[in-house]
Amino acid sequence: xxxxxxxxxxxxxxxxxxxxxxxxxxxxxxxxxxxxxxxxxxxxxxxxxxxxxxxxxxxxxxxxxxxxxxxxxxxxxxxxxxxxxxxxxxxxxxxxxxxxxxxxxxxxxxxxxxxxxxxxxxxxxxxxxxxxxxxxxxxxxxxx
Length: 144
What we know:
Largest sheet: none
Strand content: under 5%
């Protein structure tokens, strides 16, 4: 098995795993939180976000970020448009996490953002990264 194939397989696997993780927030966790008092929902999410910043999830997240970046470069070099698009979408999910979801989490943690404002913005970004990661993994799976 060559290095490019390994990068693509890692991109597919991590893309699907993080997409499932993100979708669980959109489909299960946040709908349940909307039924709670804002203060309780905020407190719960601060705990969840703190717990997520541990080696098991961070390893998966950064493995996906690095493998999708490597896969994107390799697919572009080979002229593989579908593989490039898939890798780019998985990579975009990671970038969206760093650029939008994590800063929103920090604002929530510091009590700088009201729960309802946080919730609406976070769910939009979360759904985008989940769908992008899932679609990217499927495209990478069907590539070249």
